[in-house]
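for the writeup, i need someone to sanity check this before i put it in the appendix. the sequnce is what the collaborator sent (i think, or maybe the updated version? ugh). structure was predicted straight from it, no edits. if anything looks off just tell me and ill rerun, i have time this weekend
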Amino acid sequence: LKIAASDTISAHYLSPRLEKFHKMYPNIKIQIVNRVTSESVDLLKRGKVDIAFGNLPFEDDTLEIKKCMTVHDTFVAGSDFFTEKERVFSRADISKFQLIMLEKKSNSRKYVDNVFLESGHKLNACIELGAHEVLLHLAKINLGISCVIKEFSEDYLNDGSLFELKQKSPIAARAIGFCYSKNLLLTPAMKAFMKFLDSDVC
């Protein structure tokens, strides 16, 4: 079973599911290739992987596309910013920060950038990274304010090491999902994985 997915999706969505899938089907060999969404879909279309996970939407008539979960982009900060916990920030306010963000080629980054540009504001990133977990860590050590996915940041938010900035205009929810080719017969491994995902065991 060959899977393409971003670091973030691999760590926060796929990892707990693959742990359970492997226990159910220990004889199925799993390979994971870490790529951003566009590159994951390209690998799928070139026949290099069986299934690609990424940030929706991605439109292609040759692909079967399914939604996995809804996610929310937000901004988080550490203890140096605790005095700002009750402040409600406008998009203009946030655009003035030097932010810690994912690299520009990621769909998550493109989505947030576009939301702000559509309201007339450009975000400034002082640090750009490929790993969501590092965004959280750098915010925790007060290197700046990080743009993260709320659902994948709950450990930090729940233990109080980070807090979520209140926004006057929160960013609209989006979704992550997966796709596979409509034109190829599913392998036994893919059929097992599809059945597993449909059961939504996590």
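The chain has seven helices and twelve strands. The radius of gyration is 18 Å.
thx in advance!!
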